[in-house]
Amino acid sequence: MTVYVDDAVHLWRGRRWAHLMADTLDELHAMAERLDIPRRVFQNKTSGAHYDVPSELRERAIELGAMAISRHTDRDRVRAVIARAKAQGRGEHP
């Protein structure tokens, strides 16, 4: 099982943001906890189960074992991770 963090590409409020996703919700929430991200910022919308993380937390997540994935070079893997995140968001088992 794996936790993933994509490129910090989304600009919002002057910062770059990435998506923290995982193969399971338990892994996702555990990594968020290790990063001191409060559960209240968990997102489970049309983009799937994830946390938005600023670029500096992206680097920390990688240090803690998250797999860096790129929307530019790992397109198939990113699609698969997002599909699992969406399935989790709908309460399905990936």
Question: What does it look like?
Answer:
- With 94 residues, the chain is α+β, with helices and mostly antiparallel strands.
- The chain has helices at 25-34, 55-63, 75-89, and strands at 3-5, 10-12, 15-22, 43-45, 48-54, 67-68.
- The radius of gyration is 12 Å and the shape is globular.
Strand content: 25-35%
Spell out the helices and strands N to C.
Answer: EEEHEEHEH
How widely separated are the two ends?
11 Å
Low-pLDDT sequence parts: none
Structural class: alpha+beta
Main sheet, how many strands, which sense, barrel? 6 strands, mixed
Average pLDDT level: 85
Helical content class: 25-40%
Number of helices: 3
Radius of gyration: 12 Å
Number of strands: 6
Shape: globular
Annotate the secondary structure layout.
Blueprint: E1 3-5, E2 10-12, E3 15-22, H1 25-34, E4 43-45, E5 48-54, H2 55-63, E6 67-68, H3 75-89
Parallel strand pairs: 1-6
Antiparallel strand pairs: 1-3, 2-3, 3-5, 4-5
